Amino acid sequence: MKKIDYACGSEEHGMARRNFLGTMAAGAGAMAGGLGSFVSPAAAEQLKRDQKRMIVIELSGGVSQLESWDPKPGTDTGGPFRAIPTSVPGIHISELLPHTAKQMHRLSLVRSINIHENDHGKGRFKMLTGYKQTPAASYPEIGAVVAKGLDDSSSGLPGNIKIYPSASGGRSADSAYLGPKYGSVMLDGGKAPANSARPDVITAEADARRNRLRQAANERFLARRRTAYTDAYAQSYEQAAELMAQRDIFDLSKESKKDQERYGSHDFGRHCLLARRLAENGISYVQVRHSNYDTHNENFNFHLEQLGEFDKPFATLVDDLADRGLLESTLIVVLSEFGRTPRINERYGRDHWGKAWSICLGGAGIQPGAVIGATNKNGTEVTDREVDGGHLFHTYLRAVGLKSNRQFNIDGRKFPLANPAAEPIRELLA
Amino acid sequence: MIQPTPTSPNGRTAGRWSVLLSLAVALSAGPVIAAAPLHERIDAALDAARVAPSPGLADDSSFLRRAFLDLAGRIPSADEARAFFADSTTGKRGRLIDRLLAGPDHARHMAITFDVTWVERRSDPHVKADVWREFLRARFETNAPYTALARDVILSDGADEKDKGGAKFLLARDAEPNALTRDVSRMFLGKDVQCAQCHNHPRIDDYTMREYYGVNAFLTRTHLFRPDTKKPGVVAENPTGEADYKSVFTQAEGRSKPRLPGGGEIAEPVVAKGGEYKVKPDKKNKKLRPIPTYSRRAALAELFAKGDNLQFRRNIVNRLWAHMMGCGIVEPVDFHHSDNPPTHPELLDLLANEFAAMQFDMRAFLRELALTRAYQRGFDLPNSLAPTVIGLEKRLTSLDADYEQLSDEASKAIVAFDRFKAAEEEKQTALAKVIGGRPKLEKQVAETDKARAAAKTTADAAAKPWNENNTRLQTLAEAAAKAKQAAENLKDDKELAQAAAVFEDRRVKLAAEVAKLKAGFDAKAALLKTAEQKASAAKLALDSANARAAKLAAELKGMDSLRLAEDNRRVKAKLAANFVMQRRDTVRELVAVARLESVDADARAKVRELEVAARTNKKTVDELAARQRELSAGLPVAQGELNLVLTERAAIADALQLAEADIAQIAADLGSANVGEPSKDGDRAEALLTWKRAREGELAGLRGRTDSTRAAFLQTVRELVNLKAAIVDNDARLIEARARGPKLAENLTAASKTAAASAEKLDLARIALGDTLGARFDVGGLTPLTPEQLCWSMLEATGETAKQAKAAEAEFAKKNPLKKGAKSTPAREAERAKFVEQYVYGKLKGQEANFVSLFGSAAGSPQNAFFATPDQALFFANGGNVRGWLNPSGGNLTDRLSRLEDPGAFAEELYLSALTRRPTPAEIADLKAELAARSGDRKAVAQELAWALLTSLEFRFRH
After folding, report:
1. Least confident among B364-378, B797-811, B858-872, B926-940
2. What is the residue-averaged pLDDT of chain B?
3. Which of A65, B183, B320, B568 is deepest in the core (most CB within 10 A)?
4. What is the DSSP string of B98-131?
């Protein structure tokens, strides 16, 4: 850092300096605390409410809309399960989701999705980016866009987190041109990010000492030349220290025994609880994957089992967010790469189906208790208000308060937040 | 340390040259320049365009670190650094460059660089990453020309199991034509024309669908051939397939033959029908890969092999330049277009042509770049620009004027080009309209022809009975005539007359019928004629449309070459204007920074002034307060003194009163006694008199004392009054001075704020200026190490590389024992170096993968983006790898350090190993203090210090 011999050393000066560094992505200097250390608890509380966030439950493999959000009992395609009433008069969903049915007044359904894709990768791409996948182009996923759009640069915590039952960890390519800063951090099996714990062999004092030495070396270098890059690199160590200090937010054992029991001891339950914990701690985007719904065989048995696992933790999550006043600032979406064929195949399975299927969403700027669009009697076609991944993408962004028709300016190049060929589903927005 | 007289690395004095050369460049005196080596011409071109003061050459350690990073992909070891610093002969920089270029690390580093540039960390099931890297490494080891490399990369189809490496570029993209079009355009032609796949680029005039599909036409027939999805695929090509396009915006359609940017459509051989394949597809053998007779991709490879497309050459020299200098002459390197002009257009073309003249020899080219002063420049910004501001402002005025003129010319050229484009578009629209109308015309031709045929059939049908009856009528008429004649000749023969009448009657009837038939036929014939007219009119219309289309097409084709010329004129004019504009903007920026400097200096002066004022005031307050204390302390003393005087005076007054009373009493007593009577009374009177006199004497004395103490009294009273006044006065001054304090503090705070703000502004402006000057190569750049450079440098610094190298040396010696007494040959040494490099790389490349996963951009995206994220810092802070490397063992860095007793030696070893430089006295002092404070903990100190330097900015960046 440039030596400032006239620095008055007042708190205001320190703040101004830090703000500057914050916007620039910053330099050496004392380890600064996160949001909390500068903001009063009441203000932090207010901030928390104003800050929007998004949780996505990804039912991987393609959940059957007929066994979930758009049941067609008593038709040739309906399968063996009944439809049950929900907390919203007139809306019925599959009997496999009794707990979710009780939360319906906080949620909404879109029953008219047609993505024109029947391939896992392409369907997923369309649903998570809002664009059709083409060989030469790449687009950021919703998580990266939300993380960037809602970026709170004062935090050392990642803004885009994916919780997978098992993952290789590390950085993924899902942020495309938004840059790796917004790429998702994968929490392998819900574990904390790699290297976020200080190993025992390095004492806190030793760590402080070596960082002090590092900062001293940096100050000498910065007296010669400083760039945005040098600031960003120096700041990454402060963010790392902050992440280490806040590592507890990844630690489910800090949640009450009762809560752990309510969510269940299986992976998905624990991951939903972790999603709640992360959302409460200001993480902009959390995506929880529940696997696997690719039921070409034995569709009904598998859905009975899978949705049985899904239903209670999901309903608990919605209920908890609402209880804590967080649902009004948290968008929650249950999606898949596509739905499943109305036709039941000879192995009692259903196959890939992007033509007429549903998602469930609620919270933040989403109007509760709504149903958008419809399919025909046996679910083979959309009959009203057809939408695709692009419309949904716009809608998510609007719901978390981002103007989806705007552009990001990245190194002087402009990139739209969402596919300009699509528009939000305005009637779904509160 | 800046060398006092800059000498070019090969020992010739550069100063004289540069003056000569900049003159020569200015005068465009070609032949003189051509004699000078390329690196001097580069410097001359840069000097001629420079507007900013420029630092001298970087010191040896900066140069050494830079050269190792750029040419060998890692920092040097402490021993390599010592050896270089110890060499005091001239030309050592040039020799180092040559040594690095010839070494095995160079081939590896270039293989990594080109792998990352071309494949962007994609993974695919077709070509193993190692095989591809080895393909590249082998080519860089033998210094294959760039053109040959480019050809091989485009041409390789991966069909030869033994030589699959080269096919990585195509197969990493599944040989998909649009992915290939985008990346061939980007990576070999420097133009990211991706947008133009679906429409002309909305903001970049130069990027059109025409350009996209020109390149696409080379590749659109290429595809992945993978009959067995469990096995790797290969590249195949269809004999047919065209690059047809239609804009999603304007609906304008087109078809492009293969063409490179700035070139025309290539001539293609006519392939005879049936002769399309060298290897025909076989329906029974799906595993047989068909091979076309004529390959468009091969045609592209051949164009690359020739290397005569200017844009192809510009792209590669710009990339190699960016590799050495930290950024391209065109930056971003993927966006060559007239709105993103090169900083030095003539330099770019000079490099493009010279690279061709040196047969695309990359090693020789990199050598020339490394020898430039531009490459060896220091990276410090000028300390103060304020002194240059007057000169800069003058320069600004003249550049403004130049720019105005040039931008005027550019606008004209743009307008002319736009007009041309409009004319061309008009013709295209006309052609599209003609072509669009053709199906209707063709339909009309078909319909009218059909109608004509039908009318003909009808007419023919009508003609037939008419003709037949007409023939019959003639026969009948002849017969009737003959009968009539016979009847006339034989008048009496009634029978005959009757017969003649019958004949006549029949003839008349038939004649009537024939006439009717004829009328019918005539009507049909008329219809036929109309139909025929219609048909020929339709045919004529079609022919004329065809002729018009052909004419328009020919005209458009004629415009093609004109368009190129017009476009070149436009681009050239824009470049000229932009070149001046960039320099003008740079000068503006310099002036702005100079002004901010004075604002900052003023603000700081103000702060200092206020600080002095505040200090002075504080001193005054202190003094006044002290004085107040002092004065207040004097108050009781003065009061005491006054009291004393008052007491004394009271005593005197009492005594006086007493004496007066006494005297009066004595006088009264005297009156009653007889004076002079010698008697008891006479004695008494005498005694009274004496006493009276005595008392009167005392009285006089007391009166005198009353007078004398009066002065003292007055004096003490005055003093007391004065003291009180002084206290009041001092108090007032103290209050006043104290009251000034907060105001002064407030002013100081405000001034400090202003100063902080101006310092921040200046800081930001200097950061931006550094970027600007760096991008113009006027100061050395500051760029992040690539993930690979970071990894290999860290392994080098910590001593991990040396550990592996030692094992490799041992193994080499075991495998290739030297006969007793025999000396090693240069060939053996080269072999040994190569062996060691490969051994070490093999052992440690897993670490490289770790760094790539943290510091590399996502697969398939450009890899030159910089980002710093907490996970990287966490990896260094808490990760096991780095901790292991910093654990003292086997002669690694921390092991060596913990054995060094002398703090000076400790510091030198540490700084040379980590930062390729000797420590400064201040750094040595700090280190001594650290060691002294924790003398029993040497190992821990070594680890902490090494960690601190390895994670420092100085290590993370190339500078």
Report:
1. B858-872
2. 90
3. A65
4. HHHHHSHHHHHHHHHHHHHHHHTT---SSS-HHH
Buried b (16+ CB within 10 A) or exposed e, B720-735: beebeebbeebbebbe
| pLDDT over 90 (residue B859) | no
Q: Are A327 and A106 in contact (CB under 8 A)?
A: yes
C-beta atoms of A224 and B945 within 8 A: no
What six digits make up the tokens of A256?
Answer: 């009450």
Q: What is the largest CA-CA distance in chain B?
A: 258
Contact B853 A6 (CB under 8 A): no
**Distance between CA B605 and CA B761 in Å, rounded?**
17
Q: At what angle are helices B209-219 and B296-306 packed, to 10 degrees?
A: 110
Q: What is the mean pLDDT of residues B682-708?
A: 85
In contact, B828 and B813? CB cutoff 8 Å: no
Whether the pLDDT of residue B22 is over 50: the answer is no
How far, in Å, CA of B797 to CA of B951, rounded? 12
- Residue closest to B254 by CA, chosen among B419, B428, B427, B434: B428
Tokens standing for B294? 């004529």
* H-run or E-run covering B744: helix B680-775
pLDDT digits (tens, 9 = 90+) for B284-316: 999 999 999 999 999 999 999 999 999 999 999
Percent of chain B with pLDDT over 90: 65
Contact A217, A208 (CB under 8 A): no
Q: How deeply is B161 buried, as exposed, middle or buried, from its count of CB atoms within 10 A (0-12, 13-18, 19+)? A: exposed
Q: How far is CA B143 from the centre of its chain?
A: 29
Q: Which helix (H) or strand (E) holds B346?
A: helix B345-357
Q: How far is CA B19 from CA B44, B424, B872, B952, in A?
A: 8, 48, 47, 40
**Which of A305, A314, A312 has the alpha carbon at shortest distance from A335?**
A314
Please tell me the distance from the alpha carbon of residue A158 to that of residue A184, in angstroms, as a whole number.
8
Q: Do the Cβ atoms of B952 and A214 come within 8 Å?
A: yes
The pair phi, psi for residue A23, each rounded to 5°, is: -70, -30
For B780, nearest residue in chain A (alpha carbons): A225
Mutate to test the interface with B, among A5, A224, A236 (most CBs of B within 10 A): A236
Predicted ipTM? Answer: 0.78
- φ and ψ at A330, to 5 degrees? -120, 120
Total length of chain B = 959
Contact B948 A158 (CB under 8 A): no
Chain A hits for B861, CB-CB cut-off 8 Å, are 138, 173, 176-177
Coil vs helix vs strand at B176? coil
Q: Which of A244, A243, A234 is nearest to A211 (CA)?
A: A234
Tell if the pTM clears 0.80, that is, is over it.
no
Report the chain B residue with the minimal C-alpha distance to residue A181: B869
CA angle B590, B594, B596 (to 5 degrees): 115
Give the confidence band of B681 by pLDDT, cuts at 50, 70, 90. low
Token representation of residue B767: 């950061």
* Residue among B760, B930, B957 whose CB faces A230 most closely: B957
Three-state SS string over B461-476 comes to HHHHHHHHHHHHHHHH
Q: Does a cis peptide bond (omega within 30 degrees of 0) precede residue A292? A: yes
Strand, coil or helix: A373? coil
Amino acid residing at B899 = R
Asked if the Cβ–Cβ distance from B760 to A20 is below 8 Å, we say yes
- For the segment B541-569, the average pLDDT, to the nearest whole number, is 87
The answer to whether the CB of A229 falls within 8 A of the CB of B784 is: yes
Instruction: Say whether A22 sits in a helix, a strand or coil.
Output: helix
Cα separation, A317 vs A280, whole angstroms? 12
A27 CB neighbours in chain B (<8 A) are: none
Cα separation, A215 vs A27, in Å, equals 9
Backbone phi, then psi, for B157, in 5-degree steps? -110, -5
